[in-house]
Amino acid sequence: MKLRKNVAISDSGFIFNPSTGDSYSVNPVGMEMLTLLHEGTPKEKIKSQIMRDYVCDESTFEKDYYDFTLMLRNYKLLEEDE
Amino acid sequence: MEKKLYERPIIRPLNTGLMNKYGNRTEYMPVTHIEGASVKEMLKKYGSPLFVFSERQIRENIRSAKRAFETRYPKVQFAWSYKTNYLNGICSIFHQEGSWAEVVSRMEYDKALHNGVSGDKILFNGPDKTDADLREAIKNNSPIHIDHLDELYRLTEIATELNVKPRVAIRVNMDVGVYPMWDRFGFNYESGQAWDAINKIMATGKLNLIGLHTHIGTYMLSPNAYGVAGYKMADLAIGIQQKFNTTIQYIDMGGGFASKNTLKGSYLKGTDIVPEVAEYAEAICTSLLNAGFRNNDLPTLFLETGRALIDDAGFLLGTVIANKRLSDGRKATILDIGVNILFTSFWYDHKISPAQEFGSHTEDTVLYGPLCMNIDVVRENVTLPPMNAGDNIVIHHVGAYDITQSMQFISLRPAVVIVDKMANPHLLKRSETLEDMQRNELVPEHLKHNKN
Ligand SMILES: Cc1ncc(COP(=O)(O)O)c(C=O)c1O
């Protein structure tokens, strides 16, 4: 799973999708996941990093990661060839 | 390194161009305490969901409403509208503050007696009074507000039979320029029905006409409508004075002042557009004072204000059961609060606050109840910070009608507590038990043999 290459992520949590002109805001955990996805980080790596940095157990991560990526797909922010 | 606090990842479109990242922050301030009592501790002690009332707010509401009228008019009497909230503890506060009772059924009537209200201070309204109810009201000297001609004739017959002269008022409906017009209750002013009814009462001499009553509607946003109603009521009272040389003792302007809730579909928040009680008071008192009563003949002004006195004193506390993503991508949160205990969600967009601290990000969410029915929607769209299963929420302004109109459905109804001035919660009603629910059920003998 990979974020579209041309999606712009600003440090303050603003996301801009130049292909559609839509912009989004994300919260800090969302920002971290998005940045990792942008870098092409595999899910297992994202999981261990989030669980290392935050008070978060595995089932919470699984549930929330699933939901978050669902939304990214919904907003057409993911590469189609996934 | 210490781990950071985790908040569910969210992404939110900024497509309107107007939306600011932080939304309307004041709307989502966490509410961790109600009148000093901890939301989480109350939920732990009394269970979730839970209705919580603020005693301070109720007393402040009735006192300031009284002040608004008493500073404008010499004779004012409030009567607590039982149907709005008839928990005995709530009624008792209003009675302690000097309110009479306004009831619309025998059950409510008996409740008022049970709460220690003397019969002559119970206004008996409503279209459904049986002969037995009328006899009881006559015995206790309660003002009976006549709703229709059938009642007028029945009451006249009973009075003749008992050889007593019951104290009565007639309910009047009228056009005050507000739609819909509540013309199904009482006698119409413009068509002359009200005046005819008055003439019938005066002609027989069997009933003691002491008052005139109206209730022009509920959640009325126009104080002006009350001004119009005041003039029309005064016109009838002065007409009676002139034709029959009888002074009407009171004019009862009913209830209907809007509470600070936001009507569904309203662009503006209730807190921003709802008139203050003082504005209604100004309209009503001005119309009566200017109507042309001789000074000694000014009738006492009765008010049966309901929702405006109790709505903001009631809170409904609940718990997030789960989060879901709907097929169209919308976020859905399931609460343990269903519309069966939040009847007013059908016409209000209730203000909802999380009961714990949260970050600055929010998302649009549908709030569902637990009822396994499609109609069970607490808010169709609300902007909230991400909440996890087990988090708590506070629904505001649920003091009016939610308790009295609640339905028992698939689970047991919650407890109700009131927080006193020292931040101590007290039970007003225990949560229902299966035993409470089944108390009146019977299983006929032939249905008792179970094959399993
Ligand atoms: C006769 C009468 N009086 C008073 C009330 C209380 O109205 P509200 O809660 O709108 O003030 C009602 C409610 O419908 C009513 O029917």
Report on the structure:
With 82 residues, chain A is α+β, with helices and mostly antiparallel strands. Chain A is 48% helix and 13% strand. Chain A has helices spanning 28-38, 43-53, 58-74; strands at 8-9, 14-17, 22-26. In chain A, strands 1-2-3 form a three-stranded antiparallel beta sheet. In chain A, β2 and β3 form a beta hairpin. Chain A starts with 7 loop residues before the first strand and ends in an 8-residue tail after the last helix. Chain B has helices at residues 39-46, 55-70, 88-96, 106-114, 131-139, 149-162, 193-204, 223-244, 270-273, 277-289, 307-310, 434-438, and strands at 11-13, 33-34, 37-38, 50-54, 76-81, 100-103, 122-124, 144-146, 167-173, 187-188, 208-214, 250-252, 300-303, 314-325, 331-335, 352-354, 363-368, 377-384, 392-395, 415-419, 425-429. In chain B, the strands form three sheets. In chain B, strands 4, 14, 15, 16, 17, 18, 19, 20 and 21 form a nine-stranded mixed beta sheet that branches. In chain B, strands 5, 6, 7, 8, 9, 10, 11, 12 and 13 form a nine-stranded parallel beta sheet that branches. In chain B, α8 runs parallel beside α10. The A-B interface holds A 13-15, 22-30, 32-34, 50, 52-56, 60, 64-65, 67-68, 70-72, 74-75 and B 3-15, 21, 323, 325, 329, 359-361, 386, 388.
CATH level 4 superfamily of the largest domain in chain B: Alanine racemase
CATH architecture of the largest domain in chain B, by name, is Alpha-Beta Barrel
Sheet-strand content of chain B, in percent, reads 15-25%
Number of strands of chain A: 3
Distance between the termini of chain A: 6 Å
Q: Using the alpha-carbon principal axes, give the shape of chain B.
A: globular
What is Rg of chain A? Answer: 12 Å
Small molecules bound:
pyridoxal-5'-phosphate
Mean pLDDT of chain B: 94
Q: What's the main sheet of chain B like?
A: 9 strands, mixed
**Annotated CATH architecture of chain A:** Orthogonal Bundle
